[in-house]
Amino acid sequence: FHDFQPPLCAEILAETDALGFEHMTPVQAATLPLFLSNKDVCVDACTGSGKTLAFVLPIVQLLKAKLADGSITAPRHADLTKLVAMVVSPTRELARQIFECAEKFFAGALPGVQLLLFVGGTSVDEDLSLIRGAVGKCSVVIGTPGRTEDLLNRCVGSSVETREFEMLILDEADTLLDMGFEVSLNKILEHLPKQRRTGLFSATQTQEVKALARAGLRNPATISVQVANNTQVTPTTLQNYYCLVGHDQRLSALHHFVQSKKGQKLIVFFSTCGSVDFFTRVLEELFKGDEAIPVVGLHGKMPQKKRTTNYDRFSSLESGLLVCTDVVARGIDLPDVDWIVQYDPPQDPNFFVHRVGRTARAGRSGCALSFLSSNEDAYVNFLKIRKVPCEEMTLPLDTMEDVLPNVKSFILEDRDLLEKGTKAFMAFVRSYKEHQCQFIFRFKELDLGAVARGFCLLQLPKINELRNVRINFEKTDIKTTDIKFKDKAREKERQKKLVVIAKENEARDKKNAEMREKKRKRPLEEENQKQPRRREKKKGLHQQIVEEWDELAEEEKLYKKLKKGKITEEEYEKVLLGKA
Length: 580
Prior knowledge:
Number of helices: 19
Oligomer: single chain
Number of domains: 2
CATH topology of the largest domain: Rossmann fold
CATH superfamily of the largest domain: P-loop containing nucleotide triphosphate hydrolases
């Protein structure tokens, strides 16, 4: 850093010295000269290569120089803040990490510039209060796409001006696009002046990223920093392993593995938020005791306050276990992580590299282990083709402790675990069915019975994915409705609901019984109604015949009277016509 030309400002050098950064990483050495000479850059570098400093340092250096020479001035009005730079990141955790990194450099070099963090999970009022606190000053925003777009929509022109905006950074650009933020990114670009410096930073350069570069960058310099031998995309300091283990043995294998790495820091990746909730609780119970191993859960559906607390807690631990989803897979630099365990392979194969990249960062060594079923072993060759070498590791599956009976005993003591396990199983099944590598992870070959046993289910839930499927699973005789919540308040609420449900069921059963009885009686009633109609029909026909015979008899009598001369022919015809 001290040898860089033109020289970096004294405040930057003091902070890099304080952080122990003596030499630039290749991505920093390649990016800084271009960025500082007013070039747009599109940077492709493997995880853990120091991309964050590659854009934080140019922002600090450039803004300090422009503020010093008057190129950037104070806002035109005292009730405005002048937005001069922005960093957009895909996740709250990554945005917060970038913010904390930038704070260290801004404090010394740019004390008059307000650094603002905008992420989801906070109220709009809180965001607006941050803007109000920055009026009369220049500001730099670090945030997630949705919240940053909302800020610009609300505030540009009213409390934020962008006239002298200098630098836009899109960090983890491929993830921003994969997560569906393209519309938000385009809206953000619309609010910013075209005369700016823009940097796209990513671990992979997809077609979508290249399209975004064409739309948002002007004649960008492309920087691609790969490992020296070009035979792998993961760091050479990473040892990558896989282990063939069935779904009903994975929890026991994980328990054994974590115990063997006591005193180290591990991250365990699961495919769904439900699995994180369930296995966090289970692992907390399994690792209780005198030599307890701290277990922390983290996923994207957690309330923001809990996400932040758990993230900070794991970051501060010297050893322990983080149970998480892919929300932690991109860009997050959790300190001193020794092992990555992929309990479930990622649904998106691109995330394999990002997951294992949470260890072996910035030249440090690290290890990763992935669990695969025997019918998923083709994934190893798939990774090899993608330049991700993987060696097999064997675990003592036959002799290690089976922890599933222990977990079932935990479930019988607390209904919360029963419900979490069932939800997690259903979420996993749906996730597996939608896997992006279905030519390897074939749902038809998934051992659903083993999966159910792995989640310690007492009985299978009724879901569409299990219809007409033969499953090797033996349900228990335990009546699950008898399992209570440990939390007395939750159990009291459940009992109230059960009473209401029982009454509703009773009313429904009574109504169904009445309907069945009504249906049974309906044919008899219809038959009884038909009988009188038939009698009336028969009676009407008989009466008609009698009346016709009476009429013929009357005519015969009248004719005899005519023959005997008792009446005239005119009288005879008159009587006949009168009857007609």
